[in-house]
Design brief:
Length: 353
Amino acid sequence: MGEVPRSPTPNFYSILGISKTATLSDISKAYKSLVMKWNYDKNQSNKVEAEAESRIKSLNDAYRALSGKKRGDDTWADVPKTPNNNNNNKNNASSSPNNNNKNNASQDDDGFIISNPVLLSRIGSRGDYYSGSFSRCSSGILTPGSAPTTPNRRSNSTPIIYSQTTARRKPPPVEQRLECTLEDLLHGCLKNVTITRDVVSDVGLILQEEETLRIRVKSGWRKGTKITFEGKGDERPGSMPADLVFVIDEKRHPLFKRHGDDLELGVEIPLLQALSGCTIDVPLLDGKTMPLSIDDDIIYPGYETIIPGQGMPKFLREEEGRGDLRLKFMVDFPTEMCHERRTEIVSILNDCS
């Protein structure tokens, strides 16, 4: 029986629109440009899906053949390279066991023989463009369905598959509390925070990495203020690293309570001083004290007075300066009193009313 006639040999250079002197970089650029041109999702108005699939297959065939040839790699060929002017080698190839694959072989104008390639990309439903399972062989070329080899660091060569549908997504930010004292928020401070996060290595392994972050706490910051470190959260394969957000939380103070830019301080005095007037030393947040005299007023439970400018710094406000310190008084009443004194006090208070 005679040989089955071969199908016409495709001109891979013509398919990619490049000359035979094109470099590997030229081949890659031409391939990427044409793949984007025949992307059905982007150009539905000027071609049908079947035509786009055919064009993509031809482009993959041409790129695989020419890029493999430029690299001097025979990974894609089922038969050896055979020059056109060597008839003996051609006959030997016909009688070799690889002759079974002859009908699946194609030859370009320079005598470079490759087997008919498997599609490196396929067009199915939208969103499946360029999907499929690929691994990298030792030569750095992607092969469909081949077993993974020893992991190597990603090379700088242009990958065979080019798609904009594989963009990595960024997960939601991770929040972490940062406790600060009122003194920290009064003066400002520098805090060093050590974090441990998951990172993806070059070979795809998830490792833990420890890092110390420096946070400059500014004077006047409030509870709920957020400080964001981009990309310092955990990383997962196929995703960008999450952002790490520190949220200011105020530690409870033994004396002062914060209300916006103001501070509140509770003061307890005996009943005698509440009625007769007094002078007290008021503690301030910065560690100092301030004398305060109350002579004209009767101090009752819940009585308040204000010391201006001794509160918290005003942050992100048009006006500068500090809030106020509000003193809230509590009166310490005696727990025991003899009958005679109670009678005297009742008589005095009746005269006052």
